[in-house]
Design goal:
279 residues; alpha/beta; Elongation Factor Tu (Ef-tu), domain 3; Rossmann fold; six-stranded antiparallel beta sheet; 9 helices; 16 strands; globular
Length: 279
């Protein structure tokens, strides 16, 4: 049994700049046996710490099939701790607990196999692992569509992956709400201007599908309304509420929503589990 309080040392193998305030870290546990036993599912998170600086919950954004080899974390600089993370480089060490939480449902268990992924800003990070998984042949068998909105083109994450996703049969549509796109496409993906809900009115949305959503909390209500118009049922909509977490194991109660703890019962919830709660 893994002690949830015990951190394990992990080495940064490489890191790359995704945007001005987001870096992608590729990590491996220094204990090779621990790495081989490390299993997570898409949508789960780990607690990552720096001695003397603290720790924070961070979503794993690499695909679960590679979990015993390495894992990736995309970290946005928003405070003192994340600033310390951004000062790290390949060869440095951090400490990791987890994985924790319940992630996105497995595709084989979904009644509706077509998928719609809707991400806003850094909320696209918890969706990346699923996109990676879907690009390994799923998009050739079922319809997969990704709607991704940011303030402008400079805030787009994981651009190097776009062509591979599209080659795998995934439709990717981008939209910017603060600055009009300079180009009609980015890495082959179509670009638009406006709020992400505009895409529901201007493009054909995949039918008979399950929706995975993550982004700013204000986005959820408007996206769900659009999905309802398209006859998505509550049971066909999943939300990641990861922004509310702190301790990761239900001790601090910071993430409590009604009778649920986001870190233990989520961070991914089916909409009919939380539609009556104050999100």
């Amino acid at each position: 049994m893994i002690n949830p309080y015990l951190p394990y040392q992990a080495k940064i193998i490489k890191c790359q700049k995704e945007t001005e305030d987001v870096k992608l870290f590729h990590l491996k546990f220094t204990d090779s046996a621990r790495q081989k036993r490390f299993h997570f599912w898409n949508g789960q998170f780990v607690q990552v710490g720096i001695p003397g600086k603290g720790e924070a919950p961070i979503n794993i954004c690499s695909q679960s099939k590679d979990s015993t080899k390495y894992f990736e974390l995309a970290i946005r600089e928003v405070g003192q701790l994340t600033k310390a993370f951004h000062q790290l480089k390949a060869g440095d060490y951090v400490y990791v607990r987890g994985p924790f939480g319940n992630g996105w449902p497995k595709m084989k268990n979904l009644p509706k196999k077509n998928l719609l992924l809707v991400g806003g800003g850094c909320g696209f990070i918890p969706l990346k692992s699923t996109a990676e998984e879907l690009s390994k042949g799923y998009g050739k068998k079922y319809q997969v569509q990704i709607l991704y909105g940011t303030s402008d083109e400079s805030q787009l994450l994981f651009k190097k992956q776009y062509k591979a996703w599209q080659k795998a049969g995934i439709e990717l549509d981008l939209i910017f709400d603060k600055k009009r796109p300079q180009h009609k496409t980015v890495q082959g993906a179509k670009c638009g201007f406006g709020l992400i809900t505009k895409l529901f009115k201007t493009i054909k949305i995949v039918k008979d599908a399950t929706a995975f959503i993550c982004g700013p909390p204000i986005m959820f209500n408007f996206v769900v309304k659009e999905l309802k118009k398209l006859r998505f049922g509550d049971e066909d909509i999943y939300l990641s509420l990861e922004r509310r977490m702190t301790c990761g194991i239900g001790i601090c109660q910071h993430c409590a929503i009604g009778d649920k703890y986001v870190c233990k019962d989520g961070p991914v919830f089916r909409y009919d589990q939380v539609n009556n709660l104050e999100l």
